[in-house]
Specification:
Layout (H helix, E strand, L loop, with lengths): L5 H19 L5 H8 L3 H13 L4 E4 L5 E4 L12 H15 L7 H14 L2 H11 L2 E3 L9 H13 L1 E9 L2 E14 L4 E7 L4 E6 L4 E9 L8 H12 L3 E7 L3 H5 L7 E6 L3 E8 L2 H9 L5 E5 L2 H29 L1
Parallel strand pairs: 3-5
Antiparallel strand pairs: 1-2, 4-5, 4-8, 5-6, 6-7, 9-11, 9-12, 10-11
Helix pairs in contact: 1-3, 2-3, 4-5, 4-6, 5-6, 6-7
Length: 333
Amino acid sequence: METVGGDERGTTERVLTLLGLLQQRQVWTGPELADQLGVTPRTVRRDVERLRALGYPVHAIQGVGGGYQLGPGQDLPPLLLDDEEAIATAVSLLASAGGAVAGAGDAALRALTKLDRVLPTRLRHEVRALSGAVESFGGGRTPVDPDVLMTLARACRDEVEAGFDYPSGGEVRRRRVEPYRLVASDRRWYLLAYDLDRDDWRSFRVDRMTGVSARTWRFRPRAMPDAAAYVQESVASRVYPHQARFLVHAPAGTVRAQIPASAAVVRERAGDRCEVLSGGGSLDFVLMHVLLLGHDFEVLDPPELTSRCRVLAEKLLSAGSGSAAQESARRRS
């Protein structure tokens, strides 16, 4: 990628413009390109050779109606990106890495790594801020302010404290944190951080933050929990007043396909079984969701949920018996 200063930078920008023109329509004549670029036809020929040397198959068509044409190639040539295109590409890859495009996460992260290696110094840190501070456990999510994401990503990268206003208990309070990772769930962006005022790890929804800023005060990194697992458990259970654990008699992959990543944590267990951790406004609500999965299961925690299973089972049996009695009476009549 050519991104140096002076005449070379001017040449690179002109070649980028030439490539863009060739992609806009099928055929350009030499004079037309020269007029568009503000150079001589001879310079156009040199720039075409530069594109060919980089692997772009630019064909020269002779005769009336001829000119230059960008054709398909056998190999993928190197990309030429200006500053804005490089950052936009990184943001798009970041969205895929976060799960917005099914199955694209690993490829997107590899592409981000390659992009980072060839970017000039002035842009490399921007991309590292995006790729190095993001983890994921799900798919497409609610959009957030990209400037806020960038500010938090830089703070994660540079290991500096961050501050933001955040709603809690019906009021908005200023939070002062050590930011560690941005985590993309199947619905939203979260920040895993160490809350300095509460002296504990916390996860924060990025879309709820306002007044986000990064300080210059650096912190010594602490031993961090698994970011994606911590945030997923927070989203699926810890934010609710009631939590429950179940042993489900089905493979983890099967159960994960039935439950959104933000609704429950599914852990593999031996013998084609799995552990499901979830939360809700009531234990009955959580219990019914697991029941509707259609698999045999056992209650692991809390102990009082076992008695609720019996109560609900009796209600279901009673409801079924009532229906059977009504049907029998209807037939007799």
